[in-house]
Write a structure and sequence with these properties.
Blueprint: E1 3-6, E2 13-16, E3 23-25, E4 32-34, H1 47-100
Antiparallel strand pairs: 1-2, 3-4
Length: 104
């Protein structure tokens, strides 16, 4: 025998096809609906915990972004030092070569 019950959370009409079930889950919102004595089980969400976890994830993401930015800046500074060193070495070599040819 098929019967219909209403989800206590979202109000959706749910079709119960198996009379041997004690409960079922709403296919729309996931609320557990007890069928054995028509008591309804509501899904409770701890909003404070959800917000805390969300804030922790956001802080961790910001920390990772800051670390990545710092790492890129460090690489940039390191590359500047290498370029300055390479240019200085090239100028030194040119001076040495020109000096050995009698230009100075």
């Amino acid at each position: 025998m098929t019967r219909t019950v209403k989800c206590p959370s979202c109000g959706a009409e749910l079709t119960v096809k198996d009379d041997n079930l004690d409960f079922m889950f709403c296919e729309f919102c996931g609320t557990k609906v007890r069928l054995d004595d028509y008591q309804e089980t509501h899904r409770y969400v701890n909003e404070a915990e959800v917000q805390r976890v969300k804030a922790e994830k956001e802080l961790e993401l910001k920390r990772m972004e800051m670390e990545e930015k710092k790492r890129k800046e460090d690489i940039k500074e390191e590359n500047k030092g290498l370029i300055i060193g390479a240019v200085g070495f090239a100028v030194f070599m040119i001076i040495c070569l020109l000096g050995s040819k009698g230009f100075f």
